[in-house]
Amino acid sequence: MSHSLEFANVVDQNKKIHPHKFTLWVGIASILMMFAGLTSAYLVKREQPGWTNFQVPLIFWYSTATILISSLTMYIALKSFRERSIIKYKRLVAVTALLGILFMVLQFFGFRQLWLSGMVLRGSGAAQFLYIIAGLHALHVLGGVIAVLTLFVRSGNARIRSYNIIPVEVVSTYWHFVDLLWIYLFIFFLWVQ
After folding, report:
1. pTM above 0.85, yes or no
2. How far, CA to CA in Å, does 3 sit from each of 8, 9, 136?
3. Where are the domains of the chain?
4. Which end of the chain is less crowded, N or C, counting CB atoms within 10 A of the terminal residue's CB?
């Protein structure tokens, strides 16, 4: 009888979501609601007089390709971690972080190009929304880059190195979410320009 109770406990434990993963999903849901609200507000506000349209800079296409490639490198890094191929994992995590940084640099130059073209904060509600939406996304990407760099540092430190998959899965999920969020925003920007 005691073995069946132990087995039932193990099965119940396996069905539960890890607290870190649960927290991540709650955070993702709140971030989604925030961006849905901002993009909805943009659509409502653009009907007001004095609203200016904009042209999406070509550099945003390059930043989109960069973030998609980073999602692929993060996927392969997670797979490598699961296979305990730590050297490959470390390299791919480093590449993912560098691609995240490159994405932010490309975004900076893209928004600088919009600024120089006359899309400034004062006067245009479109510019205000655009910069707020993109700035918030950049902050989330920065958080992802910091998390990816933390994985890299932890993988190189023998004292704290472990084969706990949870942090890698959490960061990987967050990174893919931030990537997909940019794809949504990029399509939105193309649609509303």
Report:
1. no
2. 9, 10, 52
3. 58-192
4. N
In 3D space, the residue among 136, 171, 144, 172 whose CA is nearest the CA of residue 35 turns out to be 136
Using one digit for the tens of pLDDT, what is the confidence trace for 137-156? 989 999 999 999 999 888 87
Query: Would you say 150 and 144 are in contact if contact means Cβ atoms under 8 Å apart?
Result: no
